Amino acid sequence: MEDSEKIMNTGQQSPKTAAKSKDQMLSGAAWRTGADMIGKILGVIYIIPWYAWMGRFGNEANSLFSMGYNIYALFLLISTVGIPAAIAREVARYNTLDDPNMAYRLVRQMLGVMLVLGIVASGLMFFLAGPLSALVGGKDSADLIPVMKSLALAVLIFPSMSVIRGYFQGLNQVKAYAMSQLLEQIVRVIWMLAATFVIMKLGSHNWQNAVTQSTLAAFIGMLGSYAVLFYYLQKSGNLNKLINPGPVKSKINALEIFRSTLHTAIPFIVIGSAIQIFKIIDNSTFMNMMPWVTNYSHNELLVLMSYFSANTDKLTMVLLGVALTLGSVSDPLITEHYVQGNRRELATLVGYNFQLYVGFMLPAVIGMSLLTKPIYTIFYQIPSGLQSSLFVFAILQTFLLGLYMIVYPPLTVMDHKRLAMRIFTLTLVIKLVLQVPMILIFHTYGPLLATTVSFLVGVFLFIRKLHELTHFSIKNTVRGIQGATLLTGFMAIVVIIVEIILGFIFGKSPGRIASVFIAAIAGGAGFYTYLWFAAKLGLLEKWFGPRGLSLRRKLHI
């Protein structure tokens, strides 16, 4: 009761305190957004020199890297089980209750729990490297084993590192959180590129070793992140308090928090990892089933898998990151309106979310599809007809995958986790049923077709249930989507015309430098066209409110 009163009293802030909180929130958002953006840019740009230094083994190397990372990403999700968010919530709670020592004790206990979990998860990935490699890479997958073992080192330290990040998040010290993420990415990319250059240009030229060093970079990057976190702990004086916390006013059981968080987080982890699980299914079935109906060698299959999966994933993950960001922004608001029973506001928010998603994602997907040749040339090589068509298919499919990232969270936050799990299970079953026959019939197109059909069913069921729960206006939502679709059509016409004109200047098969100019000029012209029509039709203000008006003034539209 006293805790509740303290929280209620703390919530009655003075204007000065409220302004300070707002400034902290804006500062935190700026740090997180900036670090995330720089990290994503580094995560894409490094591909250009890395792939080039791999030489004629670039496609095989990218597939080997991707297969290891798909398993690794799933292990990271499982090994953290939603603990960072729980730590942030509990730290904020105990600091609000004026019991910071309890927060220190909680973090110290959780570090022990997550260290054990990291050892278990890392041990499983390390000692099961052989079977896991055979599962996703086929029978001739010995090259994948050292990749798996190198990534197991990162799994070892990530859970405990996520506890410290959650601690800083709970204190709203987002700068430390963001800087740790940023330095992790910088160190990772430096190690990847330096090791690859030394091996492929100065050393043994063994591309498998270069891939292993590139995946080991995840562990090296996390060491850099840990160093940043400890620096900020020492600088703030919190390191000694974490080691020797003082007397506390409350009682807490770290294992109990772990159990309750695990119970709450499992649906989010399972449903949220759908795309990752589907990628693993694609790897394992393609590499194991294709030898039944073709005479391709193991390396030739790696090349084909890079065409429909590895090479496209590096670029489409940026678009999926946008979808994930949009979903994370709306989830707290959806939860608030649902708990308060504001059905009208909830319906408006859900409909608006769809419009905002289409307004962002549709032009991005169509623009990348139209600029397939220059984009592919910039990052990889001048694409063949098969590479181009598979890249376009994967890019267009990203719109559907991103839509899934938007539609499933509202059901989970509105206490319909079991229903969301049932829809996910049905989606997974459809994927499994279609996967093998699709591969046997359509070969490289098979995994993409199976994923498209299964996600179409899953997304349709999620949207239908959302409409039943919120009664969002389909008419208004479709009207807003039509506006974005019309603008995308105008944008597409401009991109096509500019690309044709530049084709006369740079030729039919432009190299990497010329492709940079084509993508920048044609893409920039299309982007400006989209913004110009959006401003003229009043969509910028509708989507972004006052910020849309400010953007319109900056663009002098």
Low-confidence stretches: 1-15, 17-22
The radius of gyration is 25 Å
What pattern of helices and strands is seen along the backbone? HHHHHHHHHHHHHHHHHHHHHHH
Number of helices: 23
Oligomer kind: single chain
Cα(first) to Cα(last) distance is: 56 Å
Q: Let me know the average pLDDT.
A: 84
Structural class: mainly alpha
Helix content: over 70%
Question: How much of the polypeptide forms β-strand, as a percent range?
Answer: under 5%
Largest sheet: none
Q: Kindly state the number of beta strands.
A: 0
Gross morphology: globular
Describe this structure in words.
The chain has 557 residues and is an all-alpha fold. It is built from 23 helices and no strands. It has helices at 2-11, 15-45, 47-53, 58-80, 83-96, 100-127, 129-137, 144-170, 174-202, 207-236, 238-243, 254-272, 274-293, 298-340, 343-370, 372-379, 385-413, 417-442, 446-470, 474-506, 512-536, 539-544, 546-554. Helix 5 (83-96) runs antiparallel to helix 6, helix 15 (343-370) packs antiparallel against helix 17 and helix 15 runs parallel beside helix 20. The longest helix has 43 residues, at 298-340. The protein is globular and about 75 Å long.
